[in-house]
Amino acid sequence: MLYRLFAIALCVLLASCQKPEMPQGTIAKVERILSGQTIEVISTADKIALLEQIRLIGIDAPDFQQQPWGEAAKQRLEQLIGGKQVLLESDIAEKDQSDRKLAYLWQDGILLNEQLVKEGYVLASGRSRNTKYQQRLLNAQEWARLMNKGLWNPERALRQTPAEFRQQNQQK
After folding, report:
1. CATH classification (class only), 27-154
2. For 151, which DSSP code?
3. Which of 33, 100, 120, 126 makes an SS bond possible with 149, Cβ 3.0 to 4.6 Å?
């Protein structure tokens, strides 16, 4: 118990010592939530309305077949941003292999990628070159794990990472 309290205090201290980032990016209206890590937005680049798929950087949401977690992640993201405007901040790689735009999502000064990790709806994933907020995401994941949040709850824990689940189910 003492270790857990120390770890939580350390996470809070580390997070509070970081200089707050002022995100730069483009504003877009959220049109639809596709999963806990993918959304569609309407952006008005060059005064033309475009529907774009956006994959959230640095997170990995459970597959819909990983119930209840896949649907829960989608629903939580819907609660946070459904139909609202968000700031899309890019990093080094702008698109993924599926040609989706990659972005960090911000709303009212909150990094939503981090919020989903902190609440235990998704996992932090450092599989890309986009690492601007990787340490923040890892700190949020450690906090969620120590606090037994969401998919870290031992009574209803996620048994396989989304990547492990997808790999296992592709082989069948």
Report:
1. mainly beta
2. G
3. 120
| φ, ψ of residue 102 in degrees (nearest 5) | -100, 135
61, with CB counted inside 10 A (0-12, 13-18, 19+), is buried
Q: pLDDT, tens digit, for every residue of 13-26?
A: 555 455 556 788 99
Q: 85: Cβ–Cβ under 8 A, 6 or more apart, which residues?
A: 27, 28, 29, 30, 107
In angstroms, how far is CA 159 from the centroid of its own chain? 19
Residue 48 pLDDT level (bands cut at 50, 70, 90): confident
Domain ranges for the chain, please list them: 27-154
Question: In one letter, which amino acid is 101?
Answer: K
- How many angstroms separate the CA atoms of 156 and 172, rounded? 25
- Of the CA atoms within 13 Å of residue 19, those in its CB half-sphere come to 3
Q: How far is CA 152 from the centre of its chain?
A: 15
Give the pLDDT confidence score for residue 74 in this predicted structure: 98
Query: How many Å from the N-terminal Cα to the C-terminal Cα in the chain?
Result: 42
User: Residue 166 carries which side chain, given as an amino acid letter?
Assistant: R
Q: How far is CA 42 from the centre of its chain?
A: 20
Give the Cα separation of 24 and 27 in Å (integer).
10
- Round the average pLDDT of the chain to a whole number and report it: 87
